[in-house]
Amino acid sequence: MAEYSIVGKSVPRLDGPEKVMGKAKFATEEGIGLPGMLYGKVLHSPYAHARILSIDTTRAERLPGVVTVLTSKDVPPVRVGTYFLHDRYLFCRHTVRFIGDPVAAVAADTVDIAEEALDLIKIEYEELPAVFDPEEAMRPDCPAVIHPGLRNYDRPTYKYLGDDLPGPNVHTYFKIRKGNVDDGFSKADLIVENRFAAKRVVQGMLEPYNAVVSMGSDGILTVWACAHCMYNRIQYIVSKYLEMPRSKIRVRSSYVGGNFGSGERASRYAAVLAIKTGKPVKVVFTREEVFIDGFNRLPQIIYIKDGVKNDGTLVAREVRVIANSGAYTDYTPLVLRNGMFCFSMYRVPNFKLDAYCVFTNEPTSGAMRGLGNEQPINAMEQQMDIIAEKLGMDAVEIRHKNLIKEGEEDIRGEITHSIGVADCLDKVAQWIGWGKPSEEPVAGNWKTGKGLALGNKYSQIDTAAAAYVKVHMDGTVELRHGSDEVGQGCNTVLAQIVAEQFQVPMDKVRVTWGDTDLTAYDFGAGSSGTTFKTGNALVRACEDAKRQMFALAAPRLGTDPADLETRDGKIYVRYSPEREIPISELFIPSTPGAMGTLMLSTCLPYGAEIIGKGTWFGKPSAEDPATGQGRKLTAFYGYTAQAAEVAVDMETGMVKVLRFASAFDMGQPINPKLCEGQMEGGMVMGIGSALWEQLVMDKGRVLNPNFLDYQMPLMVNIPSGNNAVSFIAGVPHREGPYGAKGVGEAAMTAATPAIANAVYNAVGVRIGQTPFTPEDIYRALQAKMRGGKGNVLLP
Amino acid sequence: MRFDYLEPKTTEEAIALLTRYGTEAKVIAGGTDLIKGMRQKLTRLRDVKYLVDITNIPGWDYVKNDESGLTIGALTTLRNLETSAELRQRCPVISQAAGRAGSVAMRNVATLGGNLCQESKCLHYAGIYRWAPEPCHHGGGSVCYAVPGAKSCQAMATNELAPALLCLDSLVCISGPAGERTKRLEDFFVEPGALALSNTEILTGIKIPVLPTSMRQVYLKYSYTGTLNIPVVGVAAVITISEGVCSDAKIALLGAATTPLRAQKAEKILRGERVSGSTIDRCSKVAAEEARPVSDGRASAQYRRAMIKTFTKRALTQAAAL
Amino acid sequence: MKQVLDFTVNGLKKQVYVEPWWTLDKVLREELGLTGLKVGCAAGACGSCTVLIDSKAVKSCLYPAMKARWRNILTIEGLKAEGGLHPLQQAFMDHFALQCGYCTPAMILIAKALLDENPDPTEEEVKDYLSGNLCRCTGYVKIVEAVLAAKDKMKVRR
């Protein structure tokens, strides 16, 4: 790995002081004390599937303190669904499709009055048959058709979503074809088939959806929101629902209290209420609302069939995925397609995949950390262990045998570049003591075991980022980016890149973000891509700024611009560094010969400011809709290996994670400590998803929409200190800024199968569903004791 | 959520307020359960307009040991119960139970009285406001969403302190318009949410008339991630052993029935027997058979039953080893 | 009707008018502008609203404002030490024990409550005490590291 002065160093987070002092501003701080601000609340449907017969808002409107009550008749009849399939009205017009579907909103002087007004809205419903199981819902004769008008919906992107959808509730059908699987299976010595499934899981970020929107007297709508993807998911959505041009919508954001793909829901309601009332409106979703009317992780049922040779070589793989989209699409068409990228990690000459995304009357699924990859990876990585055991092979060995290498074509037709997963595998295997029994002291009813798994996460290429760099007179460099600081530390990382470009210390870098009036388009903090996309855009912006600076400086230094460099706020001649001028001298007093205070009015002689502009525009290749093949379908892949040592209580099924190792190939790490933070956060999210986290559903009802009954890992549940380690094993990527790739999502993809494999190693049971709770493990153990299989139990 | 906040300074004042406002008033102590429940719009709390804060009434926040036994004021916080040297010395099972409830921050505020009088934690009940036009049994209706067809509320008891107090043959002290009275704790829990406490009465304390001579006291809470969760099951065991023979055994369970349950059949198995692995085993089996758990979205009935057996066995084994 | 509430916040005597149904989190954030504490769930689960009341950690989202009368409240804004940041604040920064920062003020305060009660906790005791505070970003590992580091610094200083 190359050595740099700031890139690659764990410099302290720029936002550290603000956050430890409690001064950091989040969207929840916006509007406090703002005179005349109103509070908005949303009314949600109590039925999973029903027709709206009538809505009577008169009593609500009459409640003192209520300013407006809105329903579908008060807003343009526009359907918006993020940007793939436009299927969702702002307020349900004729039909409610899940318990939680918004039907009305109120703006009032206080939150309490707004809440009371919701109770006064009288809606008559006629219940319709509902469907909750996706395999049932996808049938051509399913009695509940959730979107009868599906074929007429506007589909602006991803037009490859098949025309051959098997049933009226299927909205996406995605295929991959490579080679000939029948041929492949005929050549296999062993065929292993299994079914895996996952329950709904949520992002669980601590800041609930919230926004403050106000319409300015100049006709510009300002939307303050806890933003994730300011341009794509807030500005775009508000613009479409309100039929307002994007140039009249200014989105503002500050620090975001975690996002993990959850998007934003409150801003669209605050916006429509602000426009109708002419006042600033604040909408804060309750935690229950975030659970129920948010975007949970897309549950997938995965049928996986592998054919292998006796030496462990994979010869064929066939996968069928049925995903439960819930009542609307949001991100799910992309989640489904992109979730299947994870299979690219292994060499499989014959590969067939059919993935379906199906509407049901359950809460809407959307994007969550991993974007649909964790579940196929869970299936694939448990499958590898199952195969290894049947062949009498070591689990590490079988993976090494089948991992794809640099320069090889993968199952999607891409040529692999920058793949460090083999090294990651070795690092965690070594640390966990692979092949040696556990040395952890445990009491009699506990059995220990070790397991490992690999993971990966591509990053989107069909996207773009644009950024600015402004050089101030005193040499301070200010970067302006349109991505989101959701906790991952992008402000610090991007500042490091810029500091490296200008060879200045971190305290000479400023970061401006969170304002669409000041920044340029950015895809946003998603797809583990900010370092890569926005970082690349900034590198180009830095080069542009330097070009401007050097053009101004060259005549002063009597040389060619190409001979100049910059460092520490000075511009110097590369081959004769004592010839230098400070950046400040590029700025000329506008009153020549002035002295004293008139010296302050300095300006560049031309070009207004030194502002560099840069765009990174991903250039995807074409993709064949019949086979899912393309030459360049991803920007890069981050790879990981995770290994767990667990103890299982034979009497209760409880699992304790004793030790855990993560290793990650993120290319050149820009800030190693921040990378570790992603690995550790991913480890814990993965542990939760493996063992305890699920939305407990009952006929479309979410029974546990709160942080007590939805059990995220607590501090006592995680290995710490010497029992948790994060290895950095990056392989530089030729297209990344300084060779960097990304970390965020892959960090949780391998944890679940690593734990599943460890549990199997400990007690010999494997459960095909996540989470595998203590109760599930207990039942499997009981079944095994009674002579049953105890393996891959159906959920 | 809107209400008036009343702060009586004496018991009489508090009772007068409860009498005056009837079902529109509710006693609040620490508030961790009540405020949460009101925000959730639990059916029984939806009409509450007056909160009667009893924490300003002096004399209810104490642990006192005298000739009449051990009395604990209802306003003693769970944290004080957890850390009280007096309790740790005399009735450690109470301290253990208190220390397993929620989190430190919650225990700093939550009280003994509040824990015993807490609202139902049934997942279906908490969600009714969002989706059910018809109230369930607990809400005054006639349907059960957790166990379809059930003729009465089936919510599992979750009062963390109850099993420990039941094992100590506790009495509850109640003040009301008619004066003071005491009642056996097992008669206090009538059914989910129905306490033997009228709207105008206040639980003022717990009395343990006869202190246990045995320090073989254990409380075990079983939940998936930690003390923050509602227990899947909870087991308190207090046993007295002399010369290897169990002269007395008290076992009480959470997650076993709609009220905290004294496993009396199980206790009989152990009483008078030599304490051994096999007697404990038999006793635990009977405790599991005595239990009437339901599947409620947190855990299934069968799993609860199995865990009652496992944790009764563990509690007894640990208690015997003390 | 609003009622007067007299209490001390971060060492300063305050008098505010509150609706009887307000909880302390709202009063501190919106009446006094002490927005370091956050509301994550309003149900006493996540702990982002933790403050210290008479030196004890309390989840302010479930604490009726009226109960705070005459009490001493400490929020993150009141946490100081000789010469600037409290050792816990410094340790959280030094050890990268924060990411989005939403849980951070509360996490620092609950750690302070622990160390005030028990100046030399073990790693397990730290984890147990802080388990009423959720963090979704960091995976807790660096938080434990930071609290143990702060403990050592504070032991030296005592």
Provide keyphrases for this structure.
heterotrimer; A: about 800 residues; alpha+beta; Aldehyde Oxidoreductase, domain 3; Aldehyde Oxidoreductase, domain 4; 7-stranded mixed β-sheet; B: about 325 residues; Uridine Diphospho-n-acetylenolpyruvylglucosamine Reductase, domain 2; Enolase-like, domain 1; 4-stranded antiparallel β-sheet; about 35% helix
CATH architecture of the largest domain in chain A: 2-Layer Sandwich
- Side-by-side strand order of the widest sheet of chain A: 3-5-1-12-9-10-11
Integer tally of domains of chain A: 3
So what's the CATH class of the largest domain in chain A?
A: Alpha Beta
Largest protein-protein interface? A-C, 61 and 57 residues
At the fourth level of CATH, the homologous superfamily of the largest domain in chain A is Aldehyde oxidase/xanthine dehydrogenase, molybdopterin binding domain
Numbering strands along the chain, what is their spatial order in the largest sheet of chain B?
4-5-10-6-7
Shape verdict of chain B: globular
Describe the fold and architecture.
The complex is a heterotrimer of chains A (795), B (322) and C (158). In chain A, the strands form 10 sheets. Chain A has a 7-stranded mixed sheet with strand order 3-5-1-12-9-10-11, sandwiched between helices. The longest helix of chain A has 28 residues, at 530-557. The two termini of chain A are 46 Å apart. Chain A is an alpha+beta fold and 795 residues long. Chain A folds into 3 domains: 27-130 and 209-284, Aldehyde oxidase/xanthine dehydrogenase, a/b hammerhead (Aldehyde Oxidoreductase, domain 3); 296-461 and 623-793, Aldehyde oxidase/xanthine dehydrogenase, molybdopterin binding domain (Aldehyde Oxidoreductase, domain 4, 2-Layer Sandwich), CATH 3.30.365.10; 463-617, Aldehyde oxidase/xanthine dehydrogenase, molybdopterin binding domain (Aldehyde Oxidoreductase, domain 4). With 322 residues, chain B is an alpha+beta fold. Chain B has helices spanning 11-21, 32-39, 78-83, 85-90, 92-99, 104-107, 112-116, 123-131, 162-167, 185-188, 264-270, 277-290, 301-321, and strands spanning 4-6, 25-28, 50-53, 63-66, 69-73, 171-176, 179-184, 189-191, 194-195, 202-208, 217-222, 233-242, 245-254, 261-262. In chain B, strands 4-5-10-6-7 form a 5-stranded antiparallel sheet. Chain B is globular, with a radius of gyration of 19 Å. By secondary structure, chain C is α+β, with helices and mostly antiparallel strands. Chain C has 2 domains: 3-77, Ubiquitin-like (UB roll) (Roll); 87-157, DNA polymerase, domain 1. Chain C contains 5 helices and 5 strands, in the order E-E-H-E-E-E-H-H-H-H. In chain C, helix 2 runs antiparallel to helix 5. Classes of the chains: A alpha+beta (795), B alpha+beta (322), C alpha+beta (158). Chains A and B meet through helix 3, strand 31 and helix 17 of A and helix 8 and helix 13 of B.
